[in-house]
Amino acid sequence: MDFSLSHEQRMLVDTVRDFIKTELQPLEEEIEATGVLPDETARAVFAKSKALGLYGMNIPEEHGGGGLSVVDTMLVEEQFGQTTDILIRRAFGNVYEVLLACKGPQMERWLKPAIEGERVCSIAFTEPGAGSDAAGIKTRARREGDKWVLNGMKHFISDAAFADFFVVTAVTDPDKGHRGISMFLVDKGTKGFTVGRDQPMMGIRGTTHLELHFDDVELTDEHLLGVEGEGLKLALAVLGRVRLAQVAARAIGKATKILNMTLEYARDRKQFGQALGDFQMVQQMLADSAIEINAARTALWECAWGMDQGHDMRAKISVLKVQASETLGRVVDRSMQIFGGMGYSKDLPIERYYRDARIYRIFDGASEIHRGVIAKSMLKGGTKIFDPYSA
User: Are 311 and 235 in contact (CB under 8 A)?
Assistant: First the structure.
């Protein structure tokens, strides 16, 4: 793979970066202070992004999306890491590829409106007893005649406050284990479906994490997404792209922004008559951060390229999820150490970045879960996930 960017890729990155800098970053302090993104602000940034053709870029052109390759998507997602998550969701959309499983009337009712930004979709997989263990879900959909009856709850559901409909996993055949899980499209406002309390978080202000409750919610076969019993397969497919884009790529983008801020501070801040950057210990921390970011970015591009070639990159996605999230944690920790008391102060955004970074090692599969995936992959197939010469 040629790791240099084409002219078109650079133009794409520059367009997204400029939009984030001029339209989104100025809104960050207000969201941090209030914890709320006003509806009128959300509509405004959506309209501007849509006018530039930046909404739903990950969706194929034949469905009305931007048609970006996986590599191009990761380049864009890295820029998304330069600002607050809620602003990215409202401006650029959160159109999950799982909606491409829509068929027939589902395309007009759910897929097309989501791509056009007319309806917001949210993923509802996580439950109190089923986070990383996606196969441990308890939400149940039972067949009653020509209908499905949905019961259960979900929590930590991002975008639930804004979403118009949800992709919900539920057990449809308890006797089949993970092959008895199906996926449903459920509109907000459906009888028996209520949105519960928000669960305040340590960081990522402005993004809601709500509970969803399903009490005898009646659905039809039109609400069944994909094939009965293949819900977990669909879930794992979408989670792979989410982990690579919204976790790994954005973590690298955030780490890069933090390192740039730290470099500027190290050049300007004086201690004992010289710049902080002149001290060897500070230089080591800066160098270590650069080394780790470079390694993670190179691995991200290589993994994205492999996906574009149609290769099975599941194990490498786990590698990237751990590598990028933990790189971000170390980079922001070093940054706070270099900034010292000012880094810990709310006068600067470093303490916010520190809080925001911590969740990256937890959501979409904790680091420990992914380390298990990596180890099992090697025990089964050898070292080929990182050694191209492995037999």
Answer: no
Q: Tell me: the pLDDT tens digits for 86-140?
A: 999 889 987 889 999 999 999 999 999 999 999 999 999 999 877 666 667 899 9
Contacts of 192 (CB under 8 A, 6+ apart): 150, 214, 215, 216, 217, 218
For the chain, what are the domain ranges? 7-103, 121-225, 233-381
Mapping DSSP to helix (H, G, I), strand (E, B) and coil, where does residue 118 land?
A: coil
CA distance 234 to 238: 6
Tokens 């090697």: give the residue.
378
User: In which residue are the tokens 């993104």 written?
Assistant: 37
b (16+ CB within 10 A) / e for 94-130: bbbbbbbbbeeebeebbbbbbbebebbbbbbbbbeeb
Q: Helix 314-339 crosses helix 350-358 at what angle (to 10 degrees)? A: 150
Task: Give a three-class secondary structure readout of 195-225.
Answer: EEEECCCCCCCCCCEEEEEEEEEEECHHHEE
| CATH code reported for the domain at 7-103 | 1.10.540.10
In 3D space, the residue among 98, 52, 118 whose CA is nearest the CA of residue 238 turns out to be 98
Of 247, 235, 222, which Cα lies nearest the Cα of 123?
A: 235
Domain 121-225: CATH architecture, name and number where available:
Beta Barrel (2.40)
Fold of the CATH domain 233-381: Butyryl-CoA Dehydrogenase, subunit A; domain 3 (1.20.140)
Are the beta carbons of 262 and 210 closer than 8 angstroms? no
Q: Are residues 240 and 183 in contact, defined by beta-carbon separation less than 8 angstroms?
A: no
Check if the beta carbon of residue 314 is closer than 8 Å to that of residue 233.
no
Q: What is the mean pLDDT of residues 333-352?
A: 96
Q: Under a CB-based contact definition with an 8 Å cutoff, are residues 304 and 70 in contact?
A: yes
Output the pTM of the full model. 0.92
Question: What six digits make up the tokens of 132?
Answer: 């990383």
